[in-house]
Amino acid sequence: MKCGKCGRGMLERTTIRHEVSIGGMRFVGEIPGHKCGACKDGEITLDDLIKFEHAVARHLAMHGPVSGATLRYMRKSIPLSAVALAELLHVVPETVSRWENGERLDPPRPVDRAAWLVVRDLLLDPKARQAIEGLDAVPSAEPIAIAV
Fold it and tell me: Does the global pTM surpass 0.70?
């Protein structure tokens, strides 16, 4: 396979170093990819990049820290929009934005810990995401018998 950038070299299988910093922590990974023998340009697949970023998000969810940066990173990994998170938590989207951007209100308030934990649970438990999707569904018009 020829290099898409220079067109001269052949792509060789290798690993590409990728790093990301979130919440004061640095994550480094070696992602499978290809590198051009001529121009040394490297490429990785979107799927492999998403796997790496999801692994980072899961680590943050399990170990913290609780911060706006980690809240945003985990939310995007789910993926869940800021507007959808705001609707789920019954807050205005600006509140989610303030948490994620580290904006402090008067008096100063950190990221809402309960909101952070909701996003954490949605990330770590795929069934939790399915459970919330039907919360606002219109109830059935037919009565349902419940045994007590």
Answer: yes
Q: What would the two tokens of residue 94 be? A: 């600006």
Report the alpha-carbon distance of residue 66 to residue 127 in Å, rounded.
23
- Tokens 């934005």 correspond to 97
Q: Give the chain's domains with CATH numbers.
A: 1-44 (3.10.20.860), 57-132 (1.10.260)
Distance CA 33, CA 4 (A): 14
Question: Among 78, 58, 71, 73, which Cα is nearest to 129's?
Answer: 78
43: tokens are: 């490429």
Convert the pLDDT of each residue in 37-59 to its tens digit.
899 999 999 999 999 999 999 99
Per-residue b or e along 14-47, where b marks 16 or more CB atoms closer than 10 Å to that residue's CB: eebebeeebbebebebebebbbbeeeeebebeee
Give the DSSP letter of residue 104. Answer: -
